Amino acid sequence: MSFRLVSGGDLDAAYPSAESRASDAVHWRARYLARVLFTDAAAIAVAVSAAQTIRFGGPDEPSLAWPVPLNVGYTVVSIALGITWLVLLGGTGSRAPHVLGVGVDEFRRVGSATLRLFGLLAIVALVLRVDFARGYLAIALPAGMIGLVAGRLSWRMVLRRWRARGRCLTTVLAVGSPEAAHAMATAFTDDPGSGYRVIGVCVPAGGAQSATGASHLAVLGDDRSVVEAVTRTGAESVAITSTEHLGPAQLRQMAWELDQLGVDLIVAPGVVDIAGVRLTHRVVAGMPMLHIDGPRYSLAKSRRKALFDLVFASAVVALAAPALLAIAIAVKCTSPGPVLYRSERIGRDGVPFKMIKFRSMFVNADQLADQLIAEHGGNPVFFKLKDDPRITPVGAFLRKYSLDELPQFFNVLRGEMSVVGPRPQVQREVDSYDGAMRRRLLVKPGLTGLWQVSGRSDLSLEDSVRLDLSYVENWSMVLDLSLIARTIGVVTSGDGAY
């Protein structure tokens, strides 16, 4: 990473005024909030209306059973319930700017507001002897929760598309060492859906000249002139990474000054590829700390993962049987040779097995591998070649949409592979492993995984290894399900496969 120093005149020309940038941020956040508020209200209205209609069979409704001599129908109850629900969603901070469209905390707060509302209803019913129709509440609660989550997920998908096009981004000023600023800028660039864009850095004096790399970030000052840089650029957030020059007193002073400017302060702990399930926040002696649980290798080898693999693979094989037959016929009729290609891969704990695929290359493809690696200067550990001459026309189509991988579900049924896991390894890859890379062999290889949904063949060797290790160390059932869902989108697009 290289940096370029920006003078005062260049700075004024390169960045809009703070007022202009703040106005843009307020504008898109207000529009996004309005959309979320609308879908929240619609989901709640549909839920309570459906509950009333299903429970009471139409517009005719009984009166609320309570000791007060006042005739109140369930239409009034539905309106009051809906308004209270919306108010509690706001009261729990589910529409706060720092959680809206980011992470799981938004959904946690939606769930908290909903459960608090129905818990409050239970207390009111007990204390005031109000007899709510249980069927009405039993329908309204899950229907409302599903509608709220679905609405927010839909808008979050829209927001990610906007951000992928460079819209609705929060501008960030990175503060720290050149290496830490580089890592942060790279992470945000690789994941535009996160919503952050680094517009410059403040590094220790002399840091701009000490960094090397391919991309450029504007140096807006040193790590003691952060507030001035924020004022000049209109940055909406400041992210502090690894730096030796800012102590507790300086951080507290900076937080006070940034708060007066309405700028968020983010402190990056300096750890990478650690999933949220392994992090616990705690305050010790007045100091915020992160406790990091150990890697989750044993959970990635658990019986529930094996049971899920068996059930999921069985269902896919049963449903995809006609497609498997059609692909087999296409492969057999378009090029001489067997329908299936069996290749030795190294499984869990270094045990070899024969991985099954539909043949996508000509029969002598393996004999040409060393020649192609030498001609194209490829990495023998991770050799991928665009426009590979060994691929058949049908094979190119199968590879584009990963249809050649379907027979690997039989490897899953045989217990040799998992549905989700690290990329299957060949022996020449394993022979080159160092101590860290061998951790990929602690779990079964998978049909899909983090690297497959993060760029497929377009990834470098280093990124592929990093993502596989991250999966092994941070495994959870939720992660597996999310990767399967993401795989469907990646495969149907056909991007990054060759």
UniProtKB/TrEMBL annotation:
<keyword id="KW-0812">Transmembrane</keyword>
<dbReference type="GO" id="GO:0016020">
    <property type="term" value="C:membrane"/>
</dbReference>
<feature type="transmembrane region" description="Helical">
    <location>
        <begin position="113"/>
        <end position="130"/>
    </location>
</feature>
<keyword id="KW-0808">Transferase</keyword>
<protein>
    <submittedName>
        <fullName>Polyprenyl glycosylphosphotransferase</fullName>
    </submittedName>
</protein>
<dbReference type="InterPro" id="IPR003362">
    <property type="entry name" value="Bact_transf"/>
</dbReference>
<keyword id="KW-0472">Membrane</keyword>
<feature type="transmembrane region" description="Helical">
    <location>
        <begin position="72"/>
        <end position="92"/>
    </location>
</feature>
<feature type="transmembrane region" description="Helical">
    <location>
        <begin position="32"/>
        <end position="52"/>
    </location>
</feature>
<feature type="domain" description="Bacterial sugar transferase">
    <location>
        <begin position="305"/>
        <end position="492"/>
    </location>
</feature>
<dbReference type="Pfam" id="PF02397">
    <property type="entry name" value="Bac_transf"/>
</dbReference>
<feature type="transmembrane region" description="Helical">
    <location>
        <begin position="306"/>
        <end position="331"/>
    </location>
</feature>
<comment type="similarity">
    <text>Belongs to the bacterial sugar transferase family.</text>
</comment>
<dbReference type="InterPro" id="IPR017475">
    <property type="entry name" value="EPS_sugar_tfrase"/>
</dbReference>
<dbReference type="GO" id="GO:0016780">
    <property type="term" value="F:phosphotransferase activity, for other substituted phosphate groups"/>
</dbReference>
<dbReference type="Pfam" id="PF13727">
    <property type="entry name" value="CoA_binding_3"/>
</dbReference>
<feature type="transmembrane region" description="Helical">
    <location>
        <begin position="136"/>
        <end position="155"/>
    </location>
</feature>
<keyword id="KW-1133">Transmembrane helix</keyword>
